[in-house]
Structure formats: structure tokens, C-alpha cells
Amino acid sequence: MYAISLGDDGAELRPLEPWQAEEFLAHVRRGRDFVGRFLPLSEVVWDLESSRAYLRSYAQKAATDTGRIHGIWADGQLVGVVLIRSMDVGQGVAEVGCWLEPSAVGKGLITRAARSVIDWAVEQRGIHRVEWQAATANTASIAVARRLGMTKEGVQRESFPLRGERYDMELWSVLAPEWRAARAAAATAAVAASMP
């Protein structure tokens, strides 16, 4: 299995697979209340078999090239997830999503992990448009979309039902040429900053 370093703090991005269902379930349980504010994860993953089924669904997406799921590990513990919820290579469109346990918030892990996943989608799979959806009340997710250089395209009013409430959802996106230009500008700025 491969691991992608997320920086000097030792955090890593790795694929999540069905054999990791027990570790994934423990992660979901630790973050259930925090993550569940805006995601129906607690209704989908509640025991070992549902955890395994969830990871199997993403193994199937990986096998059919329609999605991926990656875990974020910090200090040897699974603390977050970045996933490609859907991917249509023919159309060149993918949707990226994420969540994080409370213990890992504020360290830039989601932004770094999402950059890695988007880089892969754009450069390896030829995705032209990467989308990001977040409830308007989910200010942390919206802040990540901004840090990723995405553009807000609009609000889908009351489009997401969750536990008896309907949430407005914001749609954000970045196009491959914009992504590449921003990455090139960041690389140039990093080189300039390292020069005496």
C-alpha cells in the first residue's frame, strides 16, 4: 500500500480498503457527533458490517474508476477522510468530499489531503472540473473550498435533507486550467521565498 506524506508533521494520506473496516468504524465513532452535524455518516456506518459495506462500495468505485476513498493518518491514527464521491472520466467531472475528527481540526490536514487528491484527479485521470458541495452552515468546509482556490457557483436551496431538516448547499468548483495555474504560481512563490 502506498502512503503520501502530507508534510513535516508526519501525517499521511493512504487508501482506505474493506480490510480496514474496524479501524474505520473506530474513527467514525470518535467523530460521530462532530462529523454528523452536516453528513449522514452515522446513519450509514454504525457497526462493523456497515463499515465494511461502506468501504466495499468505494472499492467498487475504485474498480470501476468512478470514485476513491483515502484516509488521513496522524500519529498513526485514522483521523479523517478525503474522497472522490463521484467521478466521470468521460465527462471530465468529479466531486470531492471530506470529513475530520475534532482532534485533528485546525492543522491544515484536509486542505493538504484534498490538494493531493485533486492533483491526482486532474493530472492522472484528466478530470477537467472538480466540484465541492457543503452546507451553507458548514463554514469549515467552505473555508477549505476557498483555500483550494475554488469558485462558488451558487446555492441549492433546501436541497439536502438530514435528520428532519433541509440544508442549503453551496456548490464550489475549480477547473483544471485554474488548478494548474494556481499550483504553478504557488511553486514559483515557494522558490522565490527560499532564495536569499
UniProtKB/TrEMBL annotation:
Q: Which GO terms describe its cellular component?
A: cytoplasm
Q: What range does the record give for the signal peptide?
A: none
Keyword Transmembrane annotated: no
Q: What PANTHER family does this protein map onto?
A: ACETYLTRANSFERASE, RIBOSOMAL-PROTEIN-SERINE ACETYLTRANSFERASE
Start and end residues of each N-acetyltransferase domain: 11-174
Species annotation? Streptomyces cinnamoneus (Streptoverticillium cinnamoneum)
What keyword terms does UniProt attach to this protein? Transferase
Species lineage? Bacteria, Bacillati, Actinomycetota, Actinomycetes, Kitasatosporales
Q: Which CDD domains match?
A: NAT_SF
The protein depicted here goes by the name RimJ/RimL family protein N-acetyltransferase
Q: Which GO terms describe its molecular function?
A: protein N-terminal-serine acetyltransferase activity; protein-N-terminal-alanine acetyltransferase activity
